[in-house]
Amino acid sequence: MTRRRGIRLAARDALHVFVEDTDPEAPPSTMVSVYVFDARAGDAPIRTREDAVTWIGQRLHRIPALTRRLHRVPANLDFPFWVETDVDPDRHVRYETIGPTSRSEVHRLLASMKERRLDLSAPPWEVHVLADIRGVDDLPDGATVVALLLHHSVTDGLGAVDIARALFDDPAAAPSPGGRVVAVPGPVRAAVSLPFRYARMLPALVAARRARRTLGDLAASGAITAPRPHRPRTRFDTDTNGPRQLGVVRMPLPEVRAVARATQTSVNDVILTVVSGGLRSYLGCCDEIPAVSPAAVVPGSLRDRVGTESENKVTLLYVDLHIDRTDPRERLRRIHESAALEKHRIRRPESAASVAAVDAAPAFDLVMSIRRAHRGPVKPRGEAVPLANTTVTNVPRGPVEGLRFGDSPAVEAIGTPMLNRNYGLVHSATSLGEVLTLSFLASESCMPDPEEYERYLVAAFAELSRDCLPPHGRAAAATGRASTSDGRLEE
């Protein structure tokens, strides 16, 4: 009898599966990558569900991750495996003709996709096509919006970009083939191997304890700066229930880069400063600016590190947003310094070693740890919250040239940040070509007026650009609702 073969999930990838198993009420681990196509710019736009299914099906051979499903080892005696399976694209493509609509309705549809839990008994991906969108000021008239939904166990944000670019005909796209193919163990073999897996975890536990002690010594000596352990509770940490609302603002990427160059900072620093300014204005309008500044969780890529087996190659930085600073240029400088301190901390080998026990843990142990954590309080109580108050991700989507759906060219990408039960407000920045979009998802209960926050973000970028660039160096101001008739930025 031929034994089944597959790719064992790394621990960091499997965590997304195990958390959903343990807590069905947790936000789903669904990534949603949105692309906007100008259906008027070609002679043969995709206008039917059948055409969309055919388009996707003809490109699956380029993307190994989309032709695999999870195989579970009984009782989590080993990690799940990705195994090859037949894929019927008809089961994975959703198609809807929208027609005349509103900006808020399109945002509602996109936000609802983040709440969608993907079927882990099948290849965990979907493509949602919203066709013939009309009457939305900041989209091309008759636009087609395509959203790629992927389970986070498949890949991270940059990996999702590679997959999307392959689906949209970028010949240079090279999605990950995944890890090494091995024999899938049965329950008896997995159970026999379990004690040896625990034995291999012990050195990692010892090394992690030693690394944490060293990090503490380095922080005490001033060689590194540890993140502030607590931040003040804000309205975005108090009530994260209720439906999520999507907001989107746009900034000219050349202008963002110009601000970064003029201030010797980075695009990420500029994005964080815009978020900081928006938060300061919104909380100030509510008379709720805390005495101590909130902070943001900022995922950082580990793709340049050797030996990272997981498809999710990220670590977390905790960056002070300095909303107590009124001057935007001063705020940018301080955010740059705070981010630099965090980058220095996570680049220490002790930082990686301090969490390496997760990578060495047997699947059974990880599941038990998640269950123990789930039985504890879901939210911290009191006037402080641990480490951060919101998230800000930045996933560039690359050049716009050559990306198409049918013969409709791509004109824009929109990010949708991962939901987190601890944060009622989360942010995502992404860029495609010369346009950077900053989007957010907010619980209706803590932000009933997302359009107001959009305006504050737009104003924050305009003020920062005005303070950092001469008038001739500024391109179009950032836009929320306003745009040219075809949805592009005015130059």
What descriptive keywords fit this protein?
Chloramphenicol Acetyltransferase; 13 helices; alpha+beta
Folded structure, characterized:
It catalyses: an acyl-CoA + a 1,2-diacyl-sn-glycerol = a triacyl-sn-glycerol + CoA. Its EC number is 2.3.1.20. This is diacylglycerol O-acyltransferase. It is built from 13 helices and 18 strands. By secondary structure, it is α+β, with helices and mostly antiparallel strands. 36% of the residues lie in helices and 23% in strands. The chain has helices at residues 11-22, 49-57, 103-114, 157-167, 187-221, 235-238, 253-263, 267-285, 328-347, 349-354, 357-360, 363-375, 450-468; strands spanning 5-8, 30-37, 68-71, 81-84, 93-100, 125-134, 143-151, 181-183, 230-232, 244-252, 295-301, 314-320, 384-386, 390-394, 404-405, 408-416, 425-432, 435-443. The protein starts with a strand and ends in a 23-residue tail after the last helix.
How does the major sheet shape up?
Answer: 6 strands, mixed
The DSSP helix count reads 13
Q: Would you tell me the overall average pLDDT?
A: 92
Biggest sheet: strands side by side, in what order?
Answer: 5-6-7-2-16-15
CATH homologous superfamily of the domain at 228-352 and 379-468 - what is it? Nonribosomal peptide synthetase, condensation domain
Write down the Rg.
Answer: 23 Å
Measured by DSSP, the beta-strand proportion falls in: 15-25%
Structural class, by secondary structure, is alpha+beta
**Helix content estimate:** 25-40%
**What is the architecture of the domain at 228-352 and 379-468 at the second tier of CATH?**
2-Layer Sandwich
Distance between the termini: 66 Å
* Unreliable residue stretches: 480-491
